[in-house]
Design a protein that fits this description.
Its main location: membrane. Strand 3 and strand 4 form a beta hairpin. Helix content is 63%, strand content 15%. Helix 4 packs antiparallel against helix 5. By secondary structure, it is of the alpha+beta class.
Length: 185
Amino acid sequence: MNDSVITSEISAPYAQALMSLAKSEDLSDRFGEDAASILNLLKESPDLDQFLASPVIDLDAKKAVLQQVLGDQVHPHVRNFLLLIVDHRRVAFLSGILRQYQALLRELNQTALAEVISAVELNEGQQQTVRDRVVALTGARQVDLETTIDPDLIGGVIIKVGSQIIDASLRGQLRRISLKLGSAT
């Protein structure tokens, strides 16, 4: 088994438990905002992520740091859930658990996730155009965009929704032209 399968098998039950709690308290969206905030914090602070994942650091130290860093920024249920994950020695899977929760929330809200790779930052109008295209493609009610900048694209975008890929980049167009010219000879 590869690492992503193991991570998924460990993350899924915790994410489902968090979703169950969120639904029972009618806090699904609030927990989703907290999950996004925590994921962003871990992304911006690799040291914190490494600290939490380290097996040699005391559990009480991890809990203290989590409580100090998060303070009252997250719902008390989410904070308690995080402390429970530390107690169960699953904090190394925190990012996976939170991403899995977000996937469950998107499913609940009929929201599609579109990964957008572009050469430059997209303005609001361009983002709305991408959202409209993904809604037409998937029939989803809403679209969450995850954007990445890749200057090698030269221009245009690549949109990934599930297993579907729409390559509207200049690099992709040049590659297709090259293949057509190569097969024409």
